[in-house]
Specification:
It is built from 8 helices and 7 strands; from the N terminus they run H-E-H-E-E-E-H-E-H-H-H-H-E-H-E. The chain is an alpha/beta fold. Strands 3-2-1-4-5-7-6 form a 7-stranded mixed beta sheet, sandwiched between helices. 35% of the residues are buried.
Length: 227
């Protein structure tokens, strides 16, 4: 069971059923790209019997974690699955990372991707999420963007594009194109993304607002298979 106290933990808890549903049966060899300082899905996958490695410069200390960028990681043997959760829109060389992911997978191996299409985070979606931010508790990334945007005095699209350029973010469209050029697509769908910072609003509230046409679905769920 994943704790849901923080936004990061709520995120992992909400995404774990999706990740788990697409993993090969345990025991399988799995690598998580960008597991982060809390270990990402590594503890849950280990608990369910997978042979799991987490790779991230900020990964925790301990067995099964490698504190390095995936570009510098050298797997000792092919893996059956790779999980990349909100890691790809940050990488400096997307082609290199995905080429290395394809090389690390065994034939028929599965790539499980959870991503964000920042280009769909339009003003209506931003205002909807900013209006639902809690006034107490964590001060998350959406809080920061609300404050920085209001202080900038810029139109939302100008602010967003400038921020994405400074951060070197990859668009969701570019990520999907790069994935489909290397893997056989098993699943590609839009999904909620903003809900962890909007607690007690939930995935259900965000999905309903998307269906009503009030906001854009900015999340991406992708399952690919190595040919």
């Amino acid at each position: 069971m994943i704790d849901t106290t923080t936004a990061r933990q709520r995120w992992l808890s909400a995404l774990w059923p999706f990740v788990q549903a697409h993993l090969p049966p345990a025991p399988s060899r799995v690598l998580e790209i960008g597991c982060g300082p809390t270990g990402g899905f590594v503890p849950a996958m280990r608990e369910h019997g997978h042979d799991i490695v987490g790779v991230d410069p900020a990964a925790p200390l301990g067995p099964g974690y490698h504190q390095t960028e995936f570009e510098n990681h050298k797997p000792t043997r092919p893996v059956d699955a790779i999980v990349a959760c909100t890691a790809l829109h940050h990488v400096s060389d997307l082609d290199q990372v995905l080429d290395r992911a394809a090389a690390a997978l065994a034939p028929g191996g599965v790539l499980i991707v959870v991503e964000w299409a920042y280009e769909k985070f339009d003003e209506a979606t931003a205002r909807w999420s900013f209006d639902r931010l809690p006034n107490s508790g964590e001060h998350g990334w959406l809080h920061s963007h609300r404050e920085l945007w209001l202080a900038s005095g810029q139109p939302w699209h100008t602010y967003l594009d400038a921020w994405a350029q400074r951060e070197g973010l990859r668009s969701g469209h570019a990520i999907v194109q790069a994935l489909q050029a290397r893997f056989r697509t098993r699943l590609l769908t839009e999904a909620p993304y903003l809900f962890p910072d909007l607690y007690p609003s939930s995935v259900t509230h965000e999905r309903a607002a998307t269906h009503r046409g009030e906001i854009q679905a900015t999340g991406i769920r992708y399952i690919g298979v190595k040919p």
